[in-house]
C-alpha cells in the first residue's frame, strides 16, 4: 500500500518539529571530525514545491514553516535548519521545502555518507534525481526497515538513523519497534530518531511500550500537539523518539519547544512534552 504522498503535507507543524530535531542531532555529530552515516528509511521525494497542486490543496505549510519564515526573533537552536531553508528559497519568497534527505544533504560534510531508501514509484525517481551528482549518497528503492539489518553498523561506528514511515498501515507501529531492535543489535551506539504522528493515541502508546520493554536505554520523547487528542480523523500532534540522543539535545529542546508551540499554535491549545521514556 503506497498511497501516501508527503507532498500534500510538506512543511507542516510535524515537519518543522522533525527537521529541527534532525538538524540539532546532525550538528551535534559534526562536533567531532570523525565521519558518520545518515540513514533515512523512508526518504520521500527529497524536495517539495509549496506552490504545486498537492501542497496547494491542503496548504498545511501555512500553519508550519510559514509561521517561522522571516521572523526576527528566532532562537539560535534553529540556525542550521533555517539556513537550509534560506538556501532553498534564495529569492526570499517561500516556494520550496526540504524533505529529511535534502536537509541532511545540505548539513552533512564531505566525509559523511547518506543511505536513502524509498519505495514509492513516483517519489523514488525524484529522490534519485535529487542526489544523482552527490557522491556521498546511495539511493535505493528498497524496504527501508530492512536497511537496519543490511547497512548497520557503519564502518565509522557513528550515525543517525531516521525512521519516519507514513503509518498508513497500522502494522508500521510494530514494524518500527522490530526494525529498531534489529538495528540496535548491530549498532547499539547509533542515534535512532523515530518520528510518529498522533492520530489515535493508543497506537502510539503501544509503540512506546514496545520500545520501553525492549531493554534499550536512553530513550527520549519529544512531542508537539496543535490540538487535544481526538477520536476524529486527522493528526492532532506529532513527536520524535530519540534513542541515544546527543547529550545536549534535551536542554536544547526544553528551551526551544515552548517558543515553537507559541509560534505554531498562537491559539494556545495543544501541549508540548519532553520526557525520558527510559533513562540511562
From TrEMBL:
InterPro entries from the UniProt entry:
RlmJ (IPR007473), SAM-dependent_MTases_sf (IPR029063)
**Catalytic residues, chain numbering:** 164 (proton acceptor)
The alphabetized list of GO BP terms reads: rRNA base methylation
Instruction: Please give the Pfam families that the UniProt record associates with this protein.
Output: RsmJ
According to its UniProt record, the EC number is: 2.1.1.266
* UniProt KW keywords: Methyltransferase, RNA-binding, rRNA processing, S-adenosyl-L-methionine, Transferase
Q: Which reaction does it catalyse?
A: adenosine(2030) in 23S rRNA + S-adenosyl-L-methionine = N(6)-methyladenosine(2030) in 23S rRNA + S-adenosyl-L-homocysteine + H(+)
Q: Its biological function?
A: Specifically methylates the adenine in position 2030 of 23S rRNA.
- Spell out the family assignment given in the record's similarity comment: Belongs to the RlmJ family.
* HAMAP family per record: 23SrRNA_methyltr_J (MF_00934)
User: What name does UniProt use for this protein?
Assistant: Ribosomal RNA large subunit methyltransferase J
